[in-house]
Amino acid sequence: MAFFDSEIVQHEARNLFQDYQALTQLGGSYGKFDREGKILFIEKMEEMMDRYKIFMKRFELSDDFMAQMTLKQLENQLGNFGITPQQMFDQMNMTLERMKSELELHN
Known about the structure:
The chain has about 110 residues and is mostly helical. About 80% of the residues lie in helices and about 0% in strands.
């Protein structure tokens, strides 16, 4: 079975994309959230990042040609911005950690 023919892969890709879009739209109002809302938003972003890492690991471990091509395309797209996928995850984690520390300062 090809990587993208898997119902599980299709389902998770769809859910990740939808969840990411919803969280980024919601993130536009982050400054208006109360403390509990900010904590919940950060937790949801961390959960989504963990899911995304697992999804990307599936690409890396697959020997399917299309999975490998998709991974290469992502690497090339990020490379245009001068970063690797790992650096992207590191930057996102640093942002979330900074958001958490800002909440602790205002506690």
